[in-house]
Amino acid sequence: MKILQRHNTSMHWVFIYSIIVLTYACSQPKKESIDNEEKVIHEKGTFGYDLDFLKEHYDDLVVLKNGNAQVIVSPALQGRVLTSTAEGAKGQSFGWLNHDLIASGEQMEHFNPIGGEERFWLGPEGGQFSIYFKPESSFDFENWYVPKEIDTEPFELVSSSSSQASFKKQMQLTNYSNTVFNLNVSRTIKLLNNQEISSALDTELTENIQAVGFESENIISNNGENNWDKNSGMLSIWILSMLNPSPSTAVVVPFKEGDETELGKIVTDDYFGKVPSDRLIVKDEVLFFKADGKKRSKIGLSPQRALPIAGSYDAQNQVLTIAQFTLPENNHDYVNSLWEIQDKPFAGDAVNSYNDGPLDNGDQLGPFYEIESSSPAANLAAGESLTHIHRTFHFKGESDDLNRLAKTLLKVDLNEIEKAFD
Q: From which domain of life does this come (predicted)?
């Protein structure tokens, strides 16, 4: 009897243990349910949405990450920064992307406007030394082609980590005057932490500011046997940032004051017809350019007038954007990109901004706006190199904190920017 009783007791505890395990197992979601719960559908306009979308179409993306600050880079798109965020997957996606074109998988004949927050191009675009027009062709859209090396061909990924990615590309380009350029391109994208952002801008960030900053180091090297000079034509590094506009976004460009007889005009404002006065306001040391994506227009500042900084403020989303770039002193030879045979092919701009808008036929590419910087013309002997650095920073936070940054970096109050086009 004692043996039987012991056996019954043991069976009793086995039964109770089985009930407990079964009850616990039933209370837990199935793995399929867990997976479904973990798969978050992000809203359009967020970084998470763009990252998920881009992963569907590119299998070689490099994501740089430091906490909530993240940047997406694509080797297939010439080491292009596609977009960034300061607030993680649910945060605002700062780069403009042409979702429809990317999803279509099509390739355009003249130019593939994929978009992207920061891309590498080369100048000049127009003139007798252009690399976008074939020799003896007329300067109109039918003959304008972006070289495949900076449009559709990939850059080789040399190395990558959580904070930076490096790329390289060999190119051979022929300009309008039949000069052949053999060059090597090296491009490194680095995600900057808050300490590096503060150091680059020589200012402190408060705890209430969310920030993302990245730097592109761009190097072109003369890999041929002939020198590049004013007789043959010279290339330049051209960095373009495509950003999302809003009705209350304005580009802010500080500039050097001085007499026009010494420094020339303050701003070139007639690229696509003169910019109306309700879209461009020039003050003593700063100009405001409306960036709402509703009227196609462009401005430019010469190296005599430019400072190594520009920015924008989106009052609707409370985003302050800063662009910082290389601007060597006493070098005023910048390529001229006007679509014509030029009297002064090396009297071009160092800083530009473009606002997208409808074309004459009503079609529109964007909407987006751009902040652009260029290197000087690359006067390189065989084997020599030229480096151009461009940094992009986005800040989100309370208006008081952002205002302090704006006054320090752009020398202007946020309230003045907001009311510029009221």
A: Bacteria
> Per residue, what are the HEC states of 211-237?
EEEEEEEEEEEECCCCCCECCCECCEE
Could you give phi then psi for residue 8, rounded to 5 degrees?
-65, -40
Whether the bond into 345 is cis, omega within 30 of 0? no
- Cα 104 from chain centroid (whole Å): 22
- CA separation (Å) from 230 to 60, 129, 358, 390, 411? 39, 9, 37, 25, 37
Rg (C-alpha) for the chain, rounded Å, is: 27
CA atoms within 13 A on the CB side of 181: 33
How many Å apart are CA 285 and CA 75, to the nearest integer? 39
User: Token pair 């089985």 is at which residue?
Assistant: 18
Q: Which residues contact 298 (CB under 8 A, 6 or more apart)?
A: 271, 272, 275, 352, 353, 354, 355
Q: How many CA atoms lie within 13 A of 104 on its CB side?
A: 10
Fold topology of 47-419:
Beta-galactosidase; Chain A, domain 5 (2.70.98)
> 10-residue block means of pLDDT along the chain (422 residues)?
42 43 41 50 96 96 98 98 98 98 94 96 98 96 96 98 98 98 98 98 94 98 96 97 97 96 95 94 96 96 98 96 96 95 97 94 91 98 98 95 96 94 90
Domain boundaries, the chain: 2-38, 47-419
What is the torsion angle, in degrees rounded to the nearest 10, for the CA atoms of residue 195, residue 199, residue 200 and residue 202?
A: 130
Number of Cβ within 10 Å of residue 28's Cβ equals 9
Q: pTM for the full model?
A: 0.90
Question: Which amino acid does the sequence have at 190?
Answer: K
| 167 contacts: CB under 8 Å, gap ≥ 6 | 75, 78, 79, 155, 156, 157, 158, 185, 186, 187, 188
